[in-house]
Amino acid sequence: MQVREPDPSAASLEPRLAATVLLVRDDPFQVLLVKRSAIGSFPSRRVFPGGVVEKQDLHEKWRSLCRGGDHLNDADIAFRIAGIRECWEEAGVLCTVDGELGGLSDARSDDLLSLVERCGAHLDLGHMADFAHWVTPPSAPKRWDTRFLLARAPRDHVLCCDGVETVAADWVEPKVALDRDADDMHGLLFSTRANLQLLAMSDCVDDALEAARNRPLIRVTPSATRKDGRFLVSIPAEAGYPVSEGWVAEAPRL
């Protein structure tokens, strides 16, 4: 897998590789949502932590700094590293197996690879599973090839937004997040809502991880049809979502 520098002229042709993490915990069963700042991608939206795959996520050193990933190829590892990195950068949550991790609040500016090496820690890929794979339609002005990953949250963590990309973060039950969506002036992105609906079919972290590992990973490319000033967004029924279409008030950004 290669990561290329973005070419604005080719944005509609070549989607950028990205990773998004559904970070979950039990008692009660909740998922982490962050609120984007008013500027940048998806302004003021509540989304799962995530972002583009960067060159550092492909570094060869990662294999010796990870556990539970022996069955994964380099591309799979890079997506997982990107997702873990984004959770760390946007919400201050770092999934590790071991290592002295004290004083991390002073290390947010460090790149993840240097931080993990210095602390003698290992990233836990065994607590992650592929959840979904979405690709923005070719007609969109910006495109992403996004791997949605499901991950068990570490027990001892303190949420801490970076204040730049994200301004708030909270744990919420999937069904509660969906109920709130109707009253939120910004609403949820269609992809966020759809994956919350899929996650809400599970009752705990173990069930969600088992369901994800047993579910075929089907590439989802949504389509949108405009009617009466709104957009009907559709996804293939075989993708396994409880709902395969929904209305949005503005041109969908997926």
From TrEMBL:
Entries under CDD domains matching the protein: NUDIX_AcylCoAdiphos_Nudt19 (cd18870)
Statement: the UniProt record of this protein carries the keyword Transport: no
Domain Nudix hydrolase: 14-196
Required co-factors: Mg(2+); Mn(2+)
InterPro entries: NUDIX_hydrolase-like_dom_sf (IPR015797), NUDIX_hydrolase_dom (IPR000086), NUDT19 (IPR039121)
Record bears the keyword DNA-binding: no
Keyword entries, A-Z: Hydrolase, Magnesium, Manganese, Metal-binding
PANTHER family the UniProt entry points to: ACYL-COENZYME A DIPHOSPHATASE NUDT19, TESTOSTERONE-REGULATED PROTEIN RP2
Record-given protein name: 8-oxo-dGTP pyrophosphatase MutT (NUDIX family)
Organism: Erythrobacter ramosus
